[in-house]
Amino acid sequence: MDLDARGAVESMVEFYDKCGEGMDGMVHERERKVIRKLRDMDVPEDPAAAVGQFMERTFQDVEADARERGAPIFEVARVFQEEKFKAVDFIFPHFFLLPLVSAMSSYRIRPLTPETCLFEIWSLVLRPEGEEYDTPTEPTILPYDSQDFPEIPRQDYSNLPIQQLGLHNLDEFRLAKDVEGTISNYQRLIDGYLAGLDKDLLIPAHHVVNSGYDSPIMDIGFGPTKGCVPPDSEHAANYMQAAE
């Protein structure tokens, strides 16, 4: 459905509200309060330009709010200019960060058996130094289909058993080389560990594999390289800064 500029901004406000619902680490309630105030901001008539202006104000105002309460926030505008934006950061072997500005969700997935895993969700927020807060002492363990999960993970988890069954019915499948590379990069690095490769090969491969979840299939220094993006190519440069 086509939206005018005002409708596009409203849809973004609703989107961030939904992302933070029950998951304050992904979009914290403080951030959501700041974002809701932007509903009535003056925007250009073009919907795309309106969303761009809304996003710029979102980052500015959330950063300003964090600084006002003494949280150790970074310079958002400068980081967005210098770093490729990644909606999800992946850290080998099983850790994901889903950030907005002053808060994020963290996912850690640990295998238990060939068919099961422990999927941990943590809500993280930047806090002023010395601020008092209650520290959780024990995680809450829930089955994958629990209605106690927030809406977004509840929807995601509901697909997992079906996906697992589907994978058992595939002999092979093809990845999109530009946006599904993390799967291939990850599996080849695992193969390197299973093969007992030297750490001088494995450590640089970590820097390649640690990236946004939508990274290309890349040459990690060993294993099959046909069709891989070279680590020093322009396409891959943003994924290699940590290794330079």
Describe this structure as you would to a colleague:
The radius of gyration is 20 Å and the shape is globular. The chain is of the alpha+beta class and 244 residues long. The C terminus is likely disordered.
Annotate the secondary structure layout.
Elements: H1 5-20, H2 29-36, H3 47-68, H4 76-82, E1 89-91, E2 95-99, E3 103-113, E4 116-125, H5 151-158, H6 160-168, H7 181-194, H8 199-209, E5 211-212
Antiparallel strand pairs: 1-2, 1-5, 2-3, 3-4
Helix pairs in contact: 1-2, 1-3, 2-3, 7-8
Main attributes?
244 residues; alpha+beta; 39% helix; disordered C terminus
Q: Largest sheet, described in full?
A: 5 strands, antiparallel
Low-confidence stretches: 239-244
* Proportion of residues in helical segments: 25-40%
Q: Label the structural class.
A: alpha+beta
Give the neighbour order of strands across the main sheet. 4-3-2-1-5
Tally of DSSP helical segments: 8
- Average pLDDT metric: 86
- Shape descriptor reads globular
Order of SSEs: HHHHEEEEHHHHE
Strand fraction: 5-15%
Q: Measured on Cα atoms, how large is the radius of gyration? A: 20 Å
How far the N terminus sits from the C terminus, by CA atoms, comes to: 45 Å
Quaternary state, please?
A: single chain
How many DSSP E strands?
5
Concise overview:
The chain has 244 residues and is an alpha+beta fold. It has helices spanning 5-20, 29-36, 47-68, 76-82, 151-158, 160-168, 181-194, 199-209; strands spanning 89-91, 95-99, 103-113, 116-125, 211-212.
